[in-house]
Fold this sequence. Notes:
Subunit structure: Acetyl-CoA carboxylase is a heterohexamer composed of biotin carboxyl carrier protein (AccB), biotin carboxylase (AccC) and two subunits each of ACCase subunit alpha (AccA) and ACCase subunit beta (AccD).
Family: Belongs to the AccA family.
Radius of gyration: 21 Å
Number of domains: 2
CATH architecture of the largest domain: Alpha-Beta Complex
Number of strands: 8
Subcellular location: Cytoplasm
GO biological process, one term: fatty acid biosynthetic process
Catalytic activity: N(6)-carboxybiotinyl-L-lysyl-[protein] + acetyl-CoA = N(6)-biotinyl-L-lysyl-[protein] + malonyl-CoA
CATH topology of the largest domain: 2-enoyl-CoA Hydratase, Chain A, domain 1
Strand content: 15-25%
Low-confidence stretches: none
Number of helices: 14
Amino acid sequence: xxxxxxxxxxxxxxxxxxxxxxxxxxxxxxxxxxxxxxxxxxxxxxxxxxxxxxxxxxxxxxxxxxxxxxxxxxxxxxxxxxxxxxxxxxxxxxxxxxxxxxxxxxxxxxxxxxxxxxxxxxxxxxxxxxxxxxxxxxxxxxxxxxxxxxxxxxxxxxxxxxxxxxxxxxxxxxxxxxxxxxxxxxxxxxxxxxxxxxxxxxxxxxxxxxxxxxxxxxxxxxxxxxxxxxxxxxxxxxxxxxxxxxxxxxxxxxxxxxxxxxxxxxxxxxxxxxxxxxxxxxxxxxxxxxxxxxxxxxxxxxxxxxxxxxxxxxxxxxxx
Length: 320
């Protein structure tokens, strides 16, 4: 049973009413087909109204849904022969970032992504998807390996941010992320990133310097969480909803500003409603990017990535 979010309550209540009438029909052999059909029509319109007019805060809640598909879920659906590789060859292995080699539609690729847990035990093991420096160094090791063998890189972004604890800082958290930004900018192979949940701060950017950046419709991508922004701006984390609206962190906002390349539509109610269907939509976006990027030579790939990031923030002034 998928736990409903607060803004979904009218939809959930109507679904329950329809299910109740269907049970009465089955148990009491009473024909309530007309009533059920009428309610199903109302449900279809209500779902369109609720999910078609979601606020930024609603999308933040969907992006954080505990049952939202993770990197490993999408790897299972999209790739064949995935072999996970471990360790940064310097300190250890970070379970908050997973990566390895796989096959996508018959093409060898390297897949890397943030990994959250689905329950308390796994979340503790995965550090709630917040990587340590060794996670980013593992990711970079796999990227350089991919460059050596000419494999395209596909990254899945889903983190609140890099782990801010003392141990991470002692082991060079900021340097590890900065190194990834520098090295990813110069990779001579195509890099495609997909924001599948939360894309938070430098923790997300460490996998985000890509030729193409896609976002699921209900994902977010920002320099700080709405709660963090509200705490800094207004000294009150309770104003997170207001901050979410002001920060322009949704896929539609970022597409309009030219920061991402494509918004991938989600299934009705969010990706957690049908992971397989959502994976298919992601797969189509990846195929389109691969078709555009793979024919480029190495210099063109670097130039394409350079131009993408140089163009972010460029604007034209209108007449006064």
